[in-house]
Design brief:
This is Amidohydrolase. InterPro entries: ACMSD (IPR032465), Amidohydro-rel (IPR006680), Metal_Hydrolase (IPR032466). By secondary structure, this protein is an alpha/beta fold. The chain is built from 15 helices and eleven strands. It has one domain: Metal-dependent hydrolases (TIM Barrel). The protein is about 45% helix and about 10% strand. Strands 4-5-8-9-10-11 form a six-stranded parallel β-sheet. Helix 6 links the parallel strand 2 and strand 3. Helix 1 packs antiparallel against helix 6. The longest helix has 20 residues. It is globular and about 50 Å long.
């Protein structure tokens, strides 16, 4: 009788990057000329400002091969020491302005194209799809379509026009995500502070962590995580400002009846029900994230291959000087357990 293999330890788990993107030109070709696109582009330009747009365009063009060519991606992963990437569409593909017929075409094409990209190296690339949050009634079927394509879940933004993640219209989506065990990657795109952040790339440096904090607060304070404890939510950018300032949320929950009316427990306790990527750009902040959320709730993330990411995610993790067991858990053990990739 053959001897059973020993279980893989976290130290021997693959290095898994849960925050990596793919660019899908076919989606942009699909939406070109559709009503609403010009307005969305104008809003994006207004929020970012001309200086940021002048830098972002050439940056994306220079990184286009890594965003679209699987062979180039794999070579870059090898150079970084990354074994597996969880690949999500560029958030620029959300297109939350789109009407229902267009939105359905967008998510179906995104799922098929992302699945095809990952299929070129199925042992190393795992994919996520998209959900048109602007049309809550399409959310469940979009999630089901993503899973049917072999994707592990979907990527969502911090809000949709006129809707927060606490909106009751999303309840069927949360229920289905919990039921299926789908991964939900929370990655903001665009900050509603608008022109206040249109200089010095504040739209990203301040806007992204702000949007993360607001979105997670809606999930916590509204009771979404109480009603759906099985949700697997991964927050990009280390969850933004919320984990390091969660004490203020705890104080409000304890001191004010309006703040504590929607959720059953201290806000800080919900951090241990969420997952966070490690992309915080500061080893001291990463140590604090591990402390407040738990070493089992932090996953390696690079934002591959954009300039606001890191070219050396393992090195950035090592700089936090975690214990050996915590280092290997974040490097890949946690993600391997979460996605079943050994």
């Amino acid at each position: 009788m053959p001897r059973a293999s020993a279980p893989r330890t976290r130290a021997s788990a693959p290095t898994v990057d849960v925050h990596a993107h793919v660019l899908l030109p076919e989606i942009e070709a699909l939406v070109e000329g559709r009503p609403g696109l010009s307005g969305a582009r104008a809003l994006d330009a207004r929020r970012n400002g001309p200086a940021a747009l002048a830098v972002s365009g050439p940056m994306v063009r220079e990184r286009f091969p890594r965003l679209t060519d699987t062979a180039v991606r794999l070579a870059a992963m090898d150079a970084q020491g990354v074994d597996v990437q969880l690949v999500s569409p560029s958030p620029s593909h959300y297109h939350y302005w789109a009407d229902e017929p267009t939105a359905e075409k967008v998510y179906r094409l995104a799922h098929e194209a992302t699945a095809a990209h990952c299929a070129a190296a199925p042992d190393r690339l795992l994919g996520l799809g998209l959900v048109p949050l602007q049309h809550p009634r399409l959310a469940v079927e979009a999630l089901d379509h993503a899973l049917a394509q072999g994707l592990l879940g979907v990527e969502i933004s911090s809000h949709a026009p006129g809707r927060e993640l606490s909106d009751p219209a999303y309840e069927p989506f949360w229920s289905r995500a919990a039921e299926t065990g789908a991964l939900l990657f929370l990655h903001p795109f665009g900050c509603t502070l608008d022109e206040r952040l249109d200089q010095w790339y504040l739209s990203n440096t301040v806007g992204q962590p702000t949007e993360n904090a607001v979105a997670l607060s809606h999930l916590i304070f509204s009771g979404v995580l109480d009603r759906h404890p099985g949700l697997k939510v991964i927050a990009a950018h280390g969850g933004g400002y919320l984990p390091t300032h969660i004490g203020r949320s705890d104080h409000a929950w304890s001191a004010r009846p309006d703040a504590g009316a929607g959720c059953a427990h201290l806000p800080s306790s919900y951090l241990k029900r969420l997952y966070f990527d490690s992309l915080v750009h500061d080893p001291h902040v990463l140590r604090e994230l591990v402390r407040v959320a738990g070493a089992d709730r932090v996953l390696l993330g690079s934002d591959f291959p954009f300039d606001m990411g890191t070219e050396d995610p393992v090195g950035a993790l090592r700089a936090a000087r975690l214990t050996d067991s915590d280092f290997h858990a974040v490097r890949g053990g946690n993600a391997a357990a979460l996605i079943g990739k050994d």
